[in-house]
Every structure is written in structure tokens, then in C-alpha cells.
Amino acid sequence: MIKKIDIQLTDIEKSYDRVVLDKVSLQLDNTSFVSIVGKSGAGKSTLMNILGLIENYDKGMYRINDTIIKRGHDYAKLRRECIGFIFQSYNLIPTLNCRENILLPQLYGKSDAGNFDEIVEDLGLGGLLDKQVVYLSGGEKQRVGIARCLLLNPSLIIADEPTGNLDKDNTEKVMRLLKRENEKGRAIVVITHSDEVAGYTDKIFRLESGKLNEND
Ligand SMILES: Nc1ncnc2c1ncn2[C@@H]1O[C@H](COP(=O)(O)OP(=O)(O)OP(=O)(O)O)[C@@H](O)[C@H]1O
Ligand SMILES: [Mg+2]
Predict the structure, then answer these.
(1) Of 56, 167, 204, 206, which has the highest C-beta tally within 10 A?
(2) How far are the Cα atoms of 31, 107, 198 from residue 128, in angstroms, in the given order?
């Protein structure tokens, strides 16, 4: 079962040496399948890190279900319970095999993890489990990354350029997989430079000059 998630970001501001996010608002629930596009340096990863409870914001309001996210608190538990990440460069451990990579986050404990066998079967990884990930193709590596993410049964998946290193066929495969997970009831946010990738999602947002606007 996928837990209910209801996310509200309101007027989020974040600056480093300059303003990166300027009153950004975004609402997500289990039905959301959105992409965020924008130039390099526009603040996409910053926004994802805030959404993913990795980084603090300066001003505004961020709520996940009944929890108001405040500065300086530790949200590791909430993050583990609700949020899964998929990365452009896969973030796998090269010396471990596929099985170990997929199971690794479970070492950090989560009671309602997904079904390993079902996920592996579903992603076509059955024949690869004993292979060291260093020998896999990019598309295979990303499917291992997706399996690792799904095993924690996240209500929200944050994918930062998940197809950035993939060819057209594998890009399509990954986006179809994400679409399917969305249809099961997971909120999905994809960061991408590619209009083609963004085209798979239901809503496209553009981040520009600190502002997040829905594309029309
Ligand atoms: N920890 C940090 N300290 C200082 N500046 C930072 C930090 N993180 C990001 N920035 C700056 O904030 C701006 C936005 O960075 P961010 O990584 O969010 O951009 P992005 O849209 O993800 O870019 P890309 O498409 O290249 O990944 C950049 O100017 C970056 O240099
Ligand atoms: Mg980035």
C-alpha cells in the first residue's frame, strides 16, 4: 500500500550569494506527475533538495501531510518514510552487486518495504542480480537505481535528470516506468533539460529567474 501524501510549498525563498528561489509555490499529491525544466543554475536541484528534506529554505512554508518543515530539525525519518530519489549518475556502489545495491537502503531500517522479488521481476533485473554494477549498461544501472528507490515504497519520487545519461530507448523505458509508478499512486517530480522527457509528465513547470511557473 502506498501511503497518502499531501505536500504544500508556499512562497519558498532561498538565497546563496544571490536569490535562487523567489517565492516558489508547488502543490503535490499522490496523483502528481510533474517535471521541472530550467537552465543550468536556475535552482532546480536546490528546489529538489528542499523538497527532499536535504536542504533548509530561508522563508516561506513547507508542509508534508501534517508536518510543517522547520529549519534545523532532522527529518531523516520522515524522508525515509515518504521520499525516494533517483539520480542522473545512479549513485550505485560499484563494488557491490545488483542485489546488494537494491537492498542497501533497507539496512537503514524500514518496516513496510516493498516486495523485492516483485520489483526485480517487474524491472527485468532477474538475470542481473549477482552481477557487479560496474559491468552494467547505463539503462541497466538506472533500473537498479529505480528498484532501490521502489523498495522503500515511497509516496514521492524525486528524480533529478534520471535520463541524463541514457539513450532514447532507455529514456523511454525509464519514463514509462515512472508513469506506471505514478498510476499506482506515487507523486513523481522529474527534473530535466529535455522537452521530450518533460512531455511524458502531466504538468511542466519552468524555473526561471527564481520563479516557478507552469508552462502553457
Ligand atoms: N551549497 C551552495 N552554496 C552556494 N551556492 C550554491 C549552493 N548550491 C547551489 N548554489 C548555487 O545556486 C544556483 C542554483 O544551483 P542548482 O544546483 O540548484 O541549479 P540547477 O538548476 O540544478 O543547475 P543544473 O541544471 O546545472 O544542475 C547556482 O548558481 C549554484 O551555484
Ligand atoms: Mg541540478
Answers:
(1) 204
(2) 32, 21, 30
Q: pLDDT (tens digit, 9 = 90+) per residue, 29-52? A: 999 999 999 999 999 999 999 999
The string of pLDDT tens digits covering residues 94-151 is 999 999 999 988 776 665 667 899 999 989 999 999 999 999 999 999 999 999 999 9
Distance 153 CA to ligand 1 centre (A): 29
Q: Are 34 and 188 in contact (CB under 8 A)?
A: yes
- Ligand 1 atom closest to the Cα of residue 207 is 21
6-210, superfamily in CATH? P-loop containing nucleotide triphosphate hydrolases (3.40.50.300)
Tracing cell 519558498 back to the chain, one arrives at 12
Q: Kindly list the domain boundaries of the chain, sorted by start residue.
A: 6-210
